[in-house]
Design brief:
Oligomer: single chain
Number of helices: 19
Radius of gyration: 30 Å
Mean pLDDT: 87
Strand content: 15-25%
Structural class: alpha+beta
Number of strands: 21
Distance between the termini: 57 Å
Length: about 575
């Protein structure tokens, strides 16, 4: 028996018949032939059996499994010459469910799917997906539609498994962890959604919804494609000798100008003007472009070609393509510009607050040191604490505070710390009554709490949001640290430079008056104010090392936690 399907070109009135399978490929003895078939709990069941009592369903179990085995044999037969097939059972279920017909008929769905796989393959997180993309293009070029259909469907399952997998806690495939050689099979719910949309002729819509539905993603892909157009360009090689300051000699000025012009930090006319002068020194016109380059790479904007500026100048087009593709996939997990919410971009040391589509506040932040990383979290800010106590975590007490106490017992008193009997006790203990041997970081049996005030490490404000890692936003008593350019300095929590402004905006958004805020701010009492009217504000702690800003400028940031590495390897 031969199943003949038609290939529909949606943009033109053209019908091209082709055989999905040769006659020997298709099952010949299925009793369910010609009847609608559905999938339920990995069991192939005809609609006739679905409507039968359970006893009859179980009585027909043998016939049902026979159908499934025939479908598996069909899949194995048709895939003998198709390498890289992994989801044999899922393929059997799906092709049996649709009567062994052709799935990939819609040219727009095909183009959309290939584009999404292309972008994902550029991240280099899965060599399997890269091979699949290349084979799909080969089968399509050679008009091997049988092989294309089966491989595209299997690749769709891998892609769906990836999409579900990155949402699960602990799967850090987009952050340097080695991805599995084969992604987990998609859930039954996801496959049922696929089949439902296919049956309703919404397959094109289903495929389009698999990519991040954010404008941020579209802009990153557009920037990526601009680089792909010049990916074979020979990138300049630099041999910088130390730091180059304005007015000093540059041994490859033409290379510097080429990079700045190619990446959009210098216009064509500016570049031609510099080349015409054969200038080999860091002139004022080049310094202006270097500053533009530094600003969008998150570097110190000083016009000096230092170590980090040199590294970013040397970063090739292909490496930049991968960074953009990787960060485009990260947008599946968050948005860099929500309608309402706080976004802290960890490698950017920066926070933004949007309320009802309007940006209300921006602030510098201090994030966790690479040895004490700020985790990626999404939650909701539920309360603001005025004049907070700081309950010192055991890890900070052991690593940072007790070594200082051993040297100077007065350190705790001088810095407004209280010693309490335990985490479930408010009983205070005088530091002078504690034997010296118990002041050891590993032997200290008590807990520490710092009293409220301007010298408190949390400053005057603390912003609470539920999470399992005791992370929060807060003010600080050390505002001078915000003058530093690189601010991965904390023990994990986020210090906010404009904490007072943040507290005021959040309280007013939840219905509190300015007068109430001022009264709370002037008070010396510790008060926890729950955001009223259900106005909890979403907060995302994200890790985005490349994005396109509101002005359309592509930004890059240093990979402070080494999350951009390729399967354990650093990008540079």
């Amino acid at each position: 028996m031969t199943v003949c399907k038609y290939w529909y070109f949606t943009s033109v009135l053209c019908l091209v018949p082709f055989n999905l399978s040769a006659s020997s490929d298709l099952p010949t003895n299925s009793e369910a032939e010609g009847k609608p078939i559905v999938i339920k709990s990995k069991t192939i069941i005809t609609s006739e059996l679905m409507n039968s009592p359970d006893k009859e369903l179980f009585a027909n179990d043998q016939a049902t499994h026979q159908q499934f085995q025939i479908a598996k044999d069909w899949v194995k037969n048709i895939t003998q010459n198709v390498s890289g097939i992994h989801y044999f059972d899922k393929l059997a279920e799906v092709y049996l469910a649709i009567g062994y017909g052709q799935i990939w008929q819609d040219q727009i769905a095909i183009a959309e799917f290939e584009e999404q796989i292309r972008i994902l393959s550029l991240t280099k997180i899965s060599s399997d997906l890269t091979r699949r993309y290349q084979n799909l293009k080969r089968y399509k070029k050679n008009s091997d539609w049988r092989y294309y259909d089966i491989l595209a469907t299997d690749t769709l399952f891998a892609y769906m498994g990836f999409i579900e997998g990155i949402q699960k806690k602990g799967n850090l495939w987009l952050f340097g962890d080695i991805s599995p050689g084969v992604f987990p099979a998609p859930s039954e719910t996801f496959i049922n959604s696929f089949l439902h949309n296919y049956e309703k002729q919404n397959f094109r819509y289903f495929i389009s919804q698999l990519k991040p539905q954010k404008n941020d993603y579209i802009k990153l892909v557009e920037a990526l494609d601009e680089l792909i157009d010049i990916k074979d360009m020979r990138w300049p090689v630099f041999l910088f000798k130390g730091i180059i300051r304005p007015g000093q000699y540059v041994n490859n000025m033409d290379g510097v100008v080429t990079v700045l012009e190619t990446l959009g930090d210098m216009t064509f006319f500016e570049a031609e003007n510099i080349r015409s002068k054969n200038n080999t020194y860091l002139s004022s016109s080049v310094v202006v472009s270097i500053k533009r380059f530094q600003e969008r790479h998150g570097l110190k904007v000083d016009g000096i070609i230092g170590t980090e500026t040199q590294q970013w100048l040397a970063l090739s087009i292909k490496q930049r393509i991968r960074l953009l593709a990787l960060n485009a996939q990260r947008l599946r997990l968050w948005s860099v510009q929500p309608s309402t919410g706080i976004v802290v971009n960890i490698p950017n040391y920066h926070m933004k607050l949007w309320l009802d589509g309007e940006k209300k506040l921006e602030s510098k932040v201090i994030v966790g040191h690479p040895s004490r990383q700020t985790p990626m979290i999404d939650s909701d800010i539920q309360s603001v604490v005025f004049n907070p106590y700081w309950n010192v975590p055991n890890s900070i007490m052991k690593k940072d505070i007790m070594p200082k106490v051993q040297k100077n017992r007065s350190y705790l008193t001088n810095n407004n710390y209280e010693v309490l009997k335990g985490w479930d006790s408010e009983n205070k203990i005088s530091i002078n009554t504690i034997p010296y041997h118990l002041l050891s970081p590993n032997d200290f049996p008590y807990r520490l709490r710092q009293k409220p005030g301007k010298r408190n490490s949390l400053g005057l404000f603390k912003f609470n949001f539920p999470n399992s890692q005791a992370i929060y936003l807060h003010d600080t008593s050390s505002h001078s640290l915000f003058d530093k350019h690189e601010r991965a300095l904390s023990s994990g929590c986020i210090r906010v430079e404009k904490a007072k402004s943040l507290a005021k905006v959040l309280l007013e958004y939840s219905g509190s008056s300015e007068q109430r805020f001022n009264n709370l701010y002037r008070s010396k009492k510790t008060r926890t104010i729950v955001l009223g009217n259900g106005k909890f504000v979403p907060v995302d702690l994200i890790y985005q090392t490349a994005w396109v800003d509101e002005l359309g400028v592509v930004n890059y940031r240093n990979d402070i936690y080494m999350y951009d590495r390729v399967q354990g390897k650093i990008v540079y």
